[in-house]
């Protein structure tokens, strides 16, 4: 029978991951002691070791590692908005030219001019 899903606190995960990082006991022993699957212990240990470098980063390094700044993103949004406007205008012009050609029999004249003759 399956056990119900358990949600572990961050403190508990750190405790298990630190015990695994020490290397005093095998994964099987830790799994039995903490009643957690060995693959879960490995995953928590990996997350702990990957995140440990963030503790010693300076404020500048943290900002750089977070990704693009707000200013860069706003500039990109402006560029994309300009491109959208340009392409929408070009699409409207080609759509107008296409309806002129198709409705006038392909000679490029307006439909109203043909019917007025």
Quick structural summary:
With 117 residues, this protein is mainly alpha-helical. The chain has six helices and no strands.
Structural features:
117 residues, mainly alpha, Arc Repressor Mutant, subunit A, 2 domains, 6 helices, 0% strand, elongated, disordered C terminus
The level 1 CATH classification of the largest domain is Mainly Alpha
Global Rg: 32 Å
* Low-pLDDT residue spans: 113-117
- Estimate the global geometry from the Cα principal axes: elongated
Task: Walk me through what this model shows.
By secondary structure, this protein is mostly helical. Helices cover 70% and strands 0% of the residues. The chain folds into two domains: 1-63, Arc Repressor Mutant, subunit A, CATH 1.10.10; 68-108. Helix 1 (10-22) packs across helix 3 (38-51). It is elongated and about 80 Å long. The model is unreliable at 113-117 (pLDDT under 50).
Annotate the secondary structure layout:
Layout: H1 10-22, H2 27-34, H3 38-51, H4 59-65, H5 70-103, H6 111-116
Helix pairs in contact: 1-3
